[in-house]
Design brief:
Layout (H helix, E strand, L loop, with lengths): L3 H4 L5 H26 L3 E3 L3 E6 L14 E10 L3 E8 H14 L7 H28 L3 E3 L3 E5 L1 H13 L5 E11 L2 E11 L4 H16 L2
Antiparallel strand pairs: 1-7, 2-7, 3-4, 3-5, 3-6, 4-8, 7-8
Length: 216
């Protein structure tokens, strides 16, 4: 029988602040990579970080009319689980337009272009966030090749839970990034879903990294 502790893993305020610090550095690095990819200035606002059980998805993500397009990846190494990069469908179209403008002649197939743009952005975000976790927490984590997904966020999370934990309560880290691209605000979401066996290792590594950095 599952212990209560496995169902109530939470980060302290200090740990949450440290996690935000780590992922903020990753978001800043992503903006630099996006600038190179899109050949224009990209700014990033301080990301919002949410840490919650899968059964308590924030209300702003539950709207059944909000369909997301994005990519999914497996997370492997010292921490295993799932990764999702998601953007709302209408904003995805704008991202693709900007990317096509940066690389004229790449639009031979609309589907292929959509996929390549989302794959590249998903790769960038997964790479910079996992590198930040590696540098601070000393965890070696890698991601697999992205796969295109179109669905409501609840369905994607339900699938991730089923594939990693056989239906047990799952902890999710959601990073809401707002990028300013050509004076337009584009919000994207990046989900980190450690599997049940990895949750304690991940949380403990954040606490240890914070103590190494601040000495308490």
């Amino acid at each position: 029988m599952m212990s209560t502790r496995q169902h109530k893993i939470i980060l302290s305020n200090e740990q949450m602040d440290f996690l935000r610090e780590m992922l903020n550095i990753g978001a800043g690095n992503a903006a630099v990579a996006f600038s190179q990819m899109l050949q224009c200035m990209v700014e990033v606002k301080i990301p919002e970080i949410y840490f919650f059980p899968a059964s308590q998805i924030p209300p702003f993500l539950k709207d059944p009319d909000r369909t997301f397009v994005g990519v999914s990846m497996n997370m492997v190494g010292d921490v295993n689980g799932k990764l999702f990069y998601l953007v709302q469908d209408e904003q995805k179209e704008r991202l693709v337009e900007i990317a096509q403008g940066a690389a004229p002649g790449s639009n031979e197939s609309g589907v292929a272009t959509d996929l390549s743009v989302l794959e590249e952005i998903g790769n960038i975000l997964a790479g910079v966030f996992l590198v930040a976790i590696h540098d601070f927490c000393r965890l070696n984590i890698y991601h697999t090749v992205p796969e295109l997904r179109i669905d409501m966020i609840q369905a994607l999370i339900d699938e991730a839970i089923a594939s990693t934990s056989a239906g047990t309560t799952q902890i999710i880290i959601l990073i809401e990034n707002e990028f300013v691209i050509r004076e337009e605000n584009i919000s994207t979401f990046f989900l980190i879903i450690p599997d049940r066996e990895s949750i304690h290792k991940f949380v403990n590594s954040i606490d240890n990294a914070r103590k190494r950095t601040y000495g308490n």
